[in-house]
Predict the structure.
Amino acid sequence: MKSIFFFLSSLLAFSLVVFTSCKKTDSGSSSQGSLAGQWQQTNGPCNGLIGSVAISGNTIYAGSDVGGTYISPDLGKTWSMVTNGMSTYSNPSAIIIHNDTIMAAADGVFRSTDNGKTWNQLGQDVITCCILTMSWTGQTIVLCTYNYGPLFISNDNGLTWKESGSSIPDYTNGAAILGSNIYAATSSHGIYISTDNGQTYLASNNGLTNLQVYSVMTNNNKIYAGTGDGLFASTDQGANWSIISNALFHSHPIQHMAFNSSTILAGGYSGLFYSNDNGASWKQAVTGLADQSIESLAISGSTFLAGTSSGIYMSVNSGQTWNAIGLPVTYVHSLSSNGSDVFSCAIMMTGGIFVTPDYGQNWNFLLGGLPTYNVNSISWNGTEMIAATDSGVFVSGDRGLTWTKKSQGVPVDEYSTVTCVAGNGSNLYAGTYSYGIFVSHDGGGSWTHATLPVSDEYYAMCFYINSSGIYAGMFFGGILFSSDNGQTWTSVSSGLPTMTAYSSIVQAGSRLFASSFQGVYSSGDNGHTWRIAGSELNGKVVYSLATNGTDIIAATYENGVYMSKDLGSSWFQINSGLPANTKTACVAINGQWLFVGTNGQGVWRHPYSH
């Protein structure tokens, strides 16, 4: 079941804490509206899959599954997206730097001769989709495509292309070039070699103990093959293969490799290994490498890079220790402040819950405690944290380190997910995507299905609890209220448009405020009647609200962040420092900072003094 946040976006277009900071630099300051300062991107959270990475000097190029190619001129301190000539939805699976030219392979082949500022697509008449790997030697480039069988070859640096490899009886996972030979790694038939520029191929597997070859590369006149049995090498142009014997490689598929002088990096979805003596001895990269699922590798001088399913890691001491350097392209859809910590729920490849103890300088990934990465929202019930997930309701008494499932009686299946949760002592409340609201009076030990005055299809997006009772903001069902701990519910939607979504409810002073996909509404009589709160947000999609005294902060989908200092009578934008068209999804206040979660750019913060 997809995260509920994906659904909302479509409407609109091991118990372990691991250090996963994404380094960024702070922005300067300016003044806008009546709030001094400007937004600064925090150092995370980082969880986008990095399918390709390359480095030249201090400049790093990376392809992210969020979509697009990113460039950092300062070894990961700052990042910018490539927008000139390459689709922002392209996720390069390979990036190669060759002299002064950069090639990126995604849904096509793109070339840049100005350090990535502009790009031109090559071979549109032949290459139509889905490039997996790219190898480039001299003027020859060889491409391997996803599940398409044939390779594509260019002998003039990408200007013209031809299909190759129709005689190979299997899918190819990669290709390499050594001299005039082309080597193809196949899914189950080993290595195939062409000595006539790709016209014909013959199998050459003498010595290979596993014909499932994930990758093939060349270095110093050697050929390396990454297989399900580890790493093999050939010193006679592929005629014979010998295993690089090391217990570390046992049962570790080698899907990616990188070379530099006597250094070899080799890894896959179960770990990263490195050798600084040309393969004579090996070690596994562990210290600082929180994510062992390796998606791409690169080396330049003494700088090693590993693209993982949760960002990029860098080592500057020959692989002994690693640090996360970004990039924060995460979809953050829920923020919660508790004490000095700020917690975020993120989606994409790893998703899950992240926490920052230092106002965004470092983000820690709460690994392993939850059986699902799709966390739709979190809330607090005293000292307990409650998580609404695609796998049910979970409760943590140690700030997210360990979790206990509390979903007996709450249906979760391919049609439904828990969308939101709230708690008040032993009373817990859970909204589901397809089955309405469920209530527990014993701390989640058992649940009952609440009878609602609207259809279960109009699911709860949020809860809010005050001294009067509990409120539920519905998707296309107005706002519901219960004064008896969820046993009975009534509609409190007078003055509200019902055919919209109510995504958060907060209180400032004696007034309630509800964000909707048509603006912000307020009530001064505990929700009996509502009216639009300020014309500036009327008709706008407002995802989230946060309050502090008479201050109200609103995160909007297309218009950035708004603030009201007069209980919603008027609003002004506070977007200085945010990139243009930033889509904000959630907001929180913690001490001296405002925080917003964005749709693809991580968490940002703004100086705040009440």
About this structure: The chain has a mean pLDDT of 87.
